[in-house]
What does this fold into?
Amino acid sequence: MSARRHAGPARIVLIDKPEGPTSFDAVRAVRRLLGVRRVGHGGTLDPFATGLLVLGIGPATRLLNLVVAGRKTYRARARFGQETDSGDPTGVVVEESGLPPDSEQIAAAARSFLGTIEQVPPRHSALKIEGRRAYDRVRAGEDFEVPSRRVTVDTFDLLSFDPPFADFEIRCSAGTYVRSLARDLGRAMGSAAHLVALRRTAIGALSVDEAVGLDTIESAHAAGRLLRSPVELARDWPQVHLDDEDARRIRHGDQPPPAWSEGTGGAPYVALVDVTGELVAVAVRRDDGSLRLAVVLPAEVTA
It folds into this structure.
C-alpha cells in the first residue's frame, strides 16, 4: 500500500502589515516564500491600516473563522472637523464642521458607544449587499442603503486630543467598523470626523508585538521564527488535555464526552490538546453546555 500523502503541518504566521499593501498581498508573499498554496488570512486590514494579520498555513486555514470571530484591539486616530465618504483618508470630504470643545467631552461621547450597539458600515466596504460588494455599488454610481448590524464595543478610550486629531484605543467584536465609530462619534458631537490612521494591536490573546514585518519574513523563516503552532490561538481558552487514544478518537470524528465540558468555565471555545502540546481540535459549546467539535486538525505524521 502506498504511503498516504499529507498536506503538511498546520501552522500560523503573525504578520505586522505595513501601510500600503493589502491583506492578500501578505498572503501572496508568504505563499511564495513557503512554496505552498493553502494560505489564508483571518480578518482583512484595509491598505491604509497597519498591524496584526493572522495567516493560516495548510490545515490551519480551518481555524481562521475562529480568528475572524475573535475580539480585536486597535489604536485609532480620528480627524475632527471633516467627514469623508469612505470614512478614511482615501475618501472625498463630504462634510466640514467645527471641532469638539475639549477632551473631556470627546471621552464622554466615546463612552456612550460602549456595549452592544447598532452600527451602519461604511458604503465603501467589502460588505455584500444583495450579492455585491458595497464598494462595487459605489463605483457603479448606484443609490443603495447599507443595513445596520449589531456589534459590541468593549473599550473606546481617548488617549490624547491634539486638535484636530484624537487618538483612541478600541476593543470590539468581530464585524465592527472602526471607520464607522469615528464617523458616528463626530456626528454625535455635532461635529464631523473620519479615521486617518488605524493599527490593529491584538486579536484575542495574540499581540502585534509578536508579529513579523513583511520585509523580514525571509530572515524570520530562516531563523525558525516565522511558523508558529496553532495552539497559540487558544492561549486564552480552556484546554482539555488528551492522551493518545483520546486524540485518535477525536481525529476520527468522535464527539467530546460530557465530562470534558466540566471545569471549562462556560467558555464558548475549548482547545483539545495532545500529549505533545499540539492542538488536535477546537470544540464549541452548545446551548446545553456540552461540547461539539468545530475544527479538527490532522495528525502531522501519517504513514
User: Anything to note?
Assistant: The first strand starts at residue 11 and ends at 17. Helices lie at 23-34, 64-68, 103-111, 134-139, 178-188, 217-222, 244-251. The longest helix spans residues 23-34. The CA atoms of residues 229 and 251 lie 18 Å apart.
